[in-house]
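Incident review: delayed structure delivery

Summary: a single-chain prediction request sat in the queue longer than the usual turnaround. Root cause was a stuck worker, restarted by the on-call engineer. No data loss occurred. The affected request and its eventual output are reproduced below so the record is complete for anyone auditing the incident later.

Affected input:
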Amino acid sequence: MIIADSFNLDLSFPTHHVSIRYLNIAGESNLVIDLITVSISIVEENIISSKFSIVKNNKEEVSFIKDISYAIKSINIANLSDTNKLEEVTNTLTSKIEYTWRINSK
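Output delivered after worker restart:
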């Protein structure tokens, strides 16, 4: 129940209530476990299929830091008059960081 709550899932409940104890061949009462099926939708863009990194103290790290510094300096923050402008600057910075990471990481 706690796991379902942490993923905001709803537990399914049986539609037909039946006995969960049946007699086996030897006449002993065995418990049948009710299995619960949960469907979880996974959005494709949220699946990380590989992990990239930049090794410390190598040429890719130096290049990454240089490229990020240049990207930050090149963003125009002179006219942040409203939330739309701020969001535009944030999106630009995010794009530049993602691009710089992609070209410098392995």
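Verification: The two ends are 40 Å apart (CA to CA).
Action items: add queue-age alerting; document worker restart procedure.
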